[in-house]
Amino acid sequence: MKIIKNPLQKNWSDILKRPTQTIDDIEATVNEIFAEVKTKGDQAITKYTSLFDGISLNNFQVSMEEIVSAEKEISTELKSAIQLAKENITKFHAAQKTDRVEVETQSGVKCWQEKRPIQKVGLYIPGGSAPLFSTILMLAIPANLAGCKEIILCTPPNKEGKINPAILYTANLCGVTKIFKVGGIQAIAGMTFGTETIPQVYKIFGPGNQFVTVAKQLATRFNVAIDMPAGPSELLVFADETAKPSFVASDLLSQAEHGADSQVILVTTSEEILESVEKEVESQLEKLPRKDIATKAIENSKLILVKDEEVALNLINQYAPEHFIVIAENEKFFVDGIENAGSVFIGNYTPESAGDYASGTNHTLPTNAYAKQYSGVNLDSFQKSMTFQKIDEKGIKTIGKAIELMAEAEGLQAHKNAVTLRLKSLEE
Amino acid sequence: MKIIKNPLQKNWSDILKRPTQTIDDIEATVNEIFAEVKTKGDQAITKYTSLFDGISLNNFQVSMEEIVSAEKEISTELKSAIQLAKENITKFHAAQKTDRVEVETQSGVKCWQEKRPIQKVGLYIPGGSAPLFSTILMLAIPANLAGCKEIILCTPPNKEGKINPAILYTANLCGVTKIFKVGGIQAIAGMTFGTETIPQVYKIFGPGNQFVTVAKQLATRFNVAIDMPAGPSELLVFADETAKPSFVASDLLSQAEHGADSQVILVTTSEEILESVEKEVESQLEKLPRKDIATKAIENSKLILVKDEEVALNLINQYAPEHFIVIAENEKFFVDGIENAGSVFIGNYTPESAGDYASGTNHTLPTNAYAKQYSGVNLDSFQKSMTFQKIDEKGIKTIGKAIELMAEAEGLQAHKNAVTLRLKSLEE
User: Fold this and answer.
1) Which domains does chain A possess?
2) Does residue B378 have a known ligand-binding role?
3) What count of CB pairs under 8 Å joins A to B?
4) A245 three-state secondary structure
5) Does residue B128 carry a pLDDT above 80?
6) In angstroms, rounded to a whole number, what is the distance separating the alpha carbons of residues A184 and A163?
């Protein structure tokens, strides 16, 4: 771990720099697969599934039998855990529903704003060693609450052409309408253009490797929206003397095990905490099954000592962490003052894992300093707000003159005419 | 105008197709200017302002003296009109403020969501014949209400190095913090990277030509967000026999005068309305100062007759218009059933111009069918929602087991450990 004491502000950007990823090499491959899926549909999907996932599938839509049999493969304990998580996530996201906003801005000029669901959404869940069924909870639950009609899910099959049962169980539990055994670039292309089997969607959500990330970026050129730009996961912890070093170390390591490129930062005002967290990290690291991955991430991690909490807060706001844990006597100072963070975890008994799985908040959050301008996934991510207005004779008389003047000043005579005609008809 | 009667549903996509724009040629230019602004800052800004706007400026930040003198150049009438619009837009956007959403998902597990302002935003206002000061109202008012600290504005100077006084007046009235005489690609690049004079921003808003559109797209590769993807403006009107043909024609023309590529569509269940609107368009068109532009747009416009309102609604939802005017006895059917539209204008006395300028709703809206998944600009566009959570000893005991089980099932041992350590400490 790199220890940095009282860095000068002019050096903060260098210290807080995230590793950059080059994507230029990948773009050609992504363009090629998109072009092929667009023109050849299912045939291209089958070809790339065979090529990348090593399995030739005649039918890549998951059947109801597969879902029923998946349910039997999962322990009752895990099912209860998933259901508890579902309950909490549902409570928190249902509370985000907003009423219609209605204002009569002038007598006879009624304006309102309503949220309506995005009709068709696509969720992407990566395959690999860790079956991320928790991400299905985070995406399908708010999609359902928002009222999305079509909620499809793509995830790569294993070499036997199967999907992890926890993924099938969770998807079915949370109201996913169709599940496809398709992964990677071809999955994103399939949801972007639609194929004979895969419906075209309006917005694509979910994590993935750099191929999926570049594919999602490309999808935005074809009238599809995406949840947010992706990057490696990050955690920044602020801890003062009231923090338990073993807890802090366990949180840093839980972030580090995500990948060698995970970002892990401790900011503290206490030399003692800095030293004891460092020791704890070393000792806990030894026992982890994903030790190799975590070790690489920890090598790039930083322990930063600053002179006071104000400096700490400025530095944290400049970094804009995806996850921000604050364990401090003066936690209110940080909670009130944080301008840029995806999700904030407060106190010794609020590990990041809680938000990752079961507290109720969403774990799809902005990385790579995007917390400066992006929200994490929430109910609104699955809706769009539309405005409505209804003006009566009195209303147009009140605001008509202003519209005429402004339209004329902008050189838009036909805009003015549309009002003038109406005002004249009311004079008659 | 193209008249289409009772088209088969399988032909709707062709009929509703927007003209596609090719952007490949522009990309090289945009890349080049971005690279130069990134490395050379103000020097590059000055160079391109001289090249594209034909004026060499030593200082491109607008001074307080210029703002004061601009105020004197505008008529009292226009000022009052702008102030009325400001009042209505403020009322409607202030009403969009949401309270903190707080839920105790389990006893001892408190989760809340809060919106916090995007600290630095940049507004772009195009130059040219029509000074779009109304767009400043639509962007700067909600930026201010949201609490954005830095609200900068870039707009190209004319050949004398000046900015239209209505733009300066409106920007100052609405709390823009700094105004720069910089336009086009170099303005977007300046706000993306920051220069000695122009601050770097986190999100860029506003319309522009295709160069600006491509530049905004490129900006998103450098950690900047944009309001939404842009395209030519659109209007779809549904009118039944209760509509006044002259009003409908004036609305279609007000859209048509925006540009030769504007999209104008009438959908109706009445042959009589179709015919009389067509006649009215032809007669009103003759008198327009922007007749040449409007004529081109009208040539591509469509008058579509359908057999009933249900077919009409399906077709409109498939098109997803930016602006949707509905003048119908059964307006409720459309207002309730519209799934995809930027803003909806209801009844004979609600011209699109009202929303463009002064009713209170925002006029920055999704075009090109993006109403399927994007909101128009609203208060939330200038904020991001952050989540917070605080779990106490009791709370972690309640949800800890579920987290452990799920983390283990996902193969993430360190995530589990972060909970296990805490649970163990509570057993002691």
Assistant:
1) 24-100+117-226 (3.40.50.1980), 231-375 (3.40.50.1980), 392-427 (1.20.5.1300)
2) no
3) 406
4) helix
5) no
6) 14
